[in-house]
Write a structure and sequence with these properties.
Order of helices and strands: HHHHHHHHHHHHHHHHHHHHHHHH
CATH class of the largest domain: Mainly Alpha
Helix content: over 70%
Largest sheet: none
Length: about 550
């Protein structure tokens, strides 16, 4: 009987070098030192395969292995097909490759976390809206509508400024920590608001609430751009945008019900306690980027080149990032001014439609008028989802074209839809309540698509380190537009009538279209950097 038959079939060790398997019978000889060293060398050489094999089935085990292994982080990454890659062939990113199952599951947890997290910001933001009527009816507070108005006027000023500042300062801070910390802080402010009983107390804490609310949006934008590639970002950004609608839907149920049955204090405390609980959960569920849990990035982004002596180039200061990447970018200004006019229309619709139906159309009461405009948020939910899908489909059809330009084209089409539906609402008689509801639904559908896509374009026009600053700047300008839908539109209605009000909204739509037209072929930051890289390669060749 030959040696091979005595030893049995040779094991299938594809990853082990040929010379190793040929030397296997020599382990029976008394060369003890070699017998001890050889397995250790093989384990060290194929460590990445062992880590991937252990990690493939359990997400939690993967993260613990990543933390326990102090070697090169790329050793922990599985190939997109699920098999262990060669040691020297680790992928730079997941771009153009199928996503591993573990990555998809981990990303789903992150996405659900930021949706619920931002919806919870809306609970602590809108709590006063549904608690204020009970506060006015409380004889111990001695408050009237004018004092409530001072609170509601103070909030957007603080909120718009906060989005800008937090977006810039947050460029050097973990977005997960800012998202969760900001939510828990605004929750505590709601609790403290409910503990007071004087107007100065209420003004102080509601202004603080406005400042803290600005933390949510820019952080979610940074997390979304880190976890989702350009080809799918519009779809998921649109899905994340429903957090606005979820929070807007949940606020009257939670705050309004608590205030009605347990007093106005609980109208503030119930959202506050909910925000604290959700904030704690976010700390355990959400992560800043795929790299933080051992996965490659979803896209290749060119990093700053090292100096000639081989040392790393110093990081740009926050002010430099803001000025060079945001304020000196003409397309960011174009998006910001477009946002201004879109928010004039949005706030003009939400603030004045009920008054228009009562004063101009003769609707009997506020309850009936509120029902006719109740389709706005529902239409916005569907509109934002579809806008993201359409823009992604346009990019997939022409991947070499301008990605941001494709999204701008969708925004332009939606803006035309806004203007058409505003005209239809103006001419619809009050005796057709169902038609009025459907028209408002369509206004919401076309209005929330541009709101979502302009923010996405702002994130894609700058590098990863400037996403927060870009979103903060856009948000600040947008809320300046919202502020101009208050007193200016009220003056227009008072002096020139409701016809002039609708003309003003139509002019805002027209101005948005003028600003968008030059950007219909605009390329994203990733595309522009790829073009620069290719040009350098051609010059070098």
């Amino acid at each position: 009987m030959g040696l091979s038959s005595r030893l049995g079939p040779r094991p299938m060790c594809r990853d082990i070098p040929l010379q190793t398997t040929l030397r296997a019978p020599q382990l029976a000889r008394p060369a003890k030192r070699r017998a001890l060293i050889e397995p250790a060398r093989l384990i060290k050489q194929h460590r990445s395969a062992l880590v991937v094999a252990a990690a493939a089935g359990n997400l939690g085990d993967k993260e613990s292995l990543v933390k326990a292994d102090v070697g090169d982080p790329t050793d922990k990454l599985s190939s997109p097909s699920g098999t262990a890659p060669a040691v020297d062939a680790q992928p730079e990113s997941l771009q153009g490759k199928p996503y591993p199952r573990a990555f998809v599951i981990r990303r789903l947890f992150v996405f659900v976390g930021i949706v619920i997290g931002y919806a919870s910001y809306y609970l602590t933001r809108n709590s006063l809206t549904y608690t204020a009527p009970v506060m006015v009816s409380d004889p111990t507070l001695k408050m009237d509508i004018t004092q409530i108005g001072s609170l509601t006027s103070l909030f957007p000023i603080a909120y718009g400024f906060s989005k800008f500042v937090s977006g810039v300062l947050g460029a050097r801070t973990s977005p997960t920590l800012m998202l969760a910390g900001g939510l828990m802080a605004t929750a505590c402010v709601n609790l403290l608001f409910g503990a007071g009983n004087t107007l100065p107390w209420f003004l102080t804490f509601w202004a603080i609430n406005g400042i803290l609310q600005g933390f949510g949006g820019p952080c979610c934008a940074r997390i979304l751009t880190s976890w989702f590639a350009t080809k799918e970002r519009g779809t998921y950004w649109g899905m994340w945008n429903i957090a606005h609608n979820l929070g807007g839907f949940g606020a009257p149920i939670l705050a309004g019900t608590a205030a009605r049955y347990y007093g106005w204090k609980w109208g503030m405390w119930a959202p506050g306690l909910t925000g604290l609980a959700v904030g704690l959960i976010l700390l355990f569920v959400v992560r800043d980027s795929p790299e933080q849990v051992g996965f490659p990035p979803v896209e290749v982004v060119e990093k700053a080149k090292p100096k000639e002596d081989g040392t790393e180039a110093p990081k740009e200061s926050l002010l430099t990032l803001l000025v060079n990447n945001v304020l000196k970018n003409p397309f960011i200004w174009g998006m910001a001014l477009t946002y201004f006019f879109i928010y004039v229309v949005r706030q003009g619709v939400t603030s004045w439609f009920v008054f228009y139906l009562i004063k101009a159309k003769g609707v009997a009461d506020a309850g009936s008028a509120a029902f006719r405009v109740s389709g706005l948020e529902l239409g916005g939910l569907f509109g934002s989802l579809l806008a993201g899908r359409i823009s992604d489909a346009l990019i997939a059809r022409d991947p070499k074209g301008g990605n941001c330009g494709k999204r701008v084209q969708v925004v332009m089409a939606y803006t035309v839809g806004i203007a058409a539906c505003l005209a239809a609402f103006y001419f619809t008689p009050a005796s057709w309540p169902a038609v009025q509801w459907a028209t408002v639904f369509l206004i919401g559908f076309f209005l929330y698509g541009p709101q979502m896509l302009i923010g996405l374009c702002g994130a894609e026009l700058v590098g990863p380190e400037s996403v927060g600053a870009s979103e903060g700047f856009l948000g600040w300008v947008a809320y300046l537009g919202a502020a101009n839908a208050g007193i200016p539109l009220s003056i227009i209605v008072k002096n020139y009538g409701w016809e002039a009000y609708f003309v003003a909204l139509g002019v805002a739509c027209f101005m948005a279209l003028l600003l968008l037209a030059p950007m219909s072929n605009l390329k994203s930051y990733v595309q522009r950097e790829a073009i620069k890289k290719n040009k350098l390669k051609l010059k070098a060749a």
